[in-house]
Amino acid sequence: MGINIQKFSLRVVKESGGRYDLDKTIHMPIEAVWIFNEIVELNQRTEEVCAMITLDVRNNVTGVFEVSIGSVSSSIVTPREIFKRAILQNADSVILAHNHPSGSLSPSSNDIDITNKLVQTGKIMDIDVVDHLIIGNDDNYISMRSEGII
Prior knowledge:
Largest sheet: 5 strands, mixed
CATH architecture: 3-Layer(aba) Sandwich
Distance between the termini: 56 Å
Order of helices and strands: HEEHEHEE
Number of domains: 1
Strand order of the largest sheet: 2-1-3-4-5
Number of strands: 5
Helix content: 25-40%
Strand content: 15-25%
CATH superfamily: Cytidine Deaminase, domain 2
Shape: globular
Structural class: alpha+beta
CATH class: Alpha Beta
Radius of gyration: 16 Å
CATH topology: Cytidine Deaminase, domain 2
């Protein structure tokens, strides 16, 4: 007598692509900001959006993801949502970003808490959280790494 066993596979589905006049290797936070603003338009969104870039071992961009869309003042993000994308991309590291539609670049206590949680989760999973950027209007941003939060 046979039994039913489900077979599964995991795949990343490319939603869309385009040619962008951007460097594929990230050396500085501003380069990641340009990618987030060009592809996800974080500097133009009217609600908080959490996004991420996945990187290979040479800091080459392997993917850009819009992780969650929230309200005018918050966006929900969990380690599960970040790292399932990183694992599917076989990422060595990630750069996170979210926007503050108000234009204020100051990280909230929640921003700091979730960043610390994501850094710790990344250490366990051996996927480095390179930075967490807060993007305001235009090209205004702060880097949590540069600010000493990471």
